Amino acid sequence: MAKLNKTYNILIRLGILILTFFYLYDQLVHKHNLTNLAQYFEKIVEEKDFITVLIVVLALLPVNLLLESYKWQLVIAKLEKVSLLNALKAVMAGISVSMFVPYRMGDFLGRIFILKKANRIQATLSTFLGGVSQLIATVIFGITAIVLFFPELIRRLDYKLNLWIYSGIILTAILILVFVVFSYLNFSAFSGIIKKINKRAYNKIASYIEVFSLYSAIDLLKVLLLSMTRYLIFSFQFYLLIRIFGISLDYFHAMILIAIIYLLISGIPTIALSELGVRGTVSLYVFNLYFGNQGMQGNYSNGIVSASSAIWIINLALPAVMGIIFIFHMKFLRNNDR
Q1: What is the separation of C-alpha 36 from the centre of its chain, rounded to a whole number of angstroms?
Q2: Is residue 114 part of a domain?
Q3: How many CB atoms lie within 10 A of CB 164?
Q4: What is the pTM of this model?
């Protein structure tokens, strides 16, 4: 049995390697995204501070990865103690798997295979909690951005802002955010709710979903704050790339538009979440709301698409390639699976 598991592990690793590189080739070479980005790079590489800003963006990548690794380390510690280094390996391996798994579920699944003893279903659910915290951070910043951007949008459409309607929008946004955050911080009550709704269904999955009861509101608040910090970092990376690709926009308004972009992207289903074309289209749409027709023309269009492509390559493609190394140290099948 052990010999058979070893063979299966090798085959799975090779499969992940092939699928990851095929997906990256498809996105960057076959669909010409890398070619288009390289051509635009040639035009702006001699701009003032270009190299300095690019170095800052690249330097923030390990900060981003370490924050995510530390967050996962905290979450999974309820089931198994993992070093920060192993957590980093798990996060990068998860990014590799997420390249070809729908809705980036591979980001969750790829991490649990570094664990030696923890129940993998429970570990997946715990990892899911960390993923939900990142989604909530996106929702918090995204809804806040929509509220802030609404008056500007109304003005650009030559409509008069109705204070009563705007007050209603603000109140609705506050209620949504309070509900979302409150629900997340009290996720431990989730298993109890299922038990009350359907006791038979609860008995079948009780041993798994009881993992949620391990996390207090303080635990989840720490995870959420880490997610929000990480969000600010990769949003700042996007802002810097927008600037070096020639989009003249102050930090405040840029962060509003970026927050709306990330909110819209988070709602796109299936594997399209990772596709460069989808990200570029969403970015163009949002920036066009701000710049008007100018946002879809010339340097604005090229700059926005290039910045969107660059942030994808830096924060997803590069870690995915590096994560392949750690895939070969993971056991997807183990003798003590339960």
Answers
A1: 24
A2: yes
A3: 7
A4: 0.85
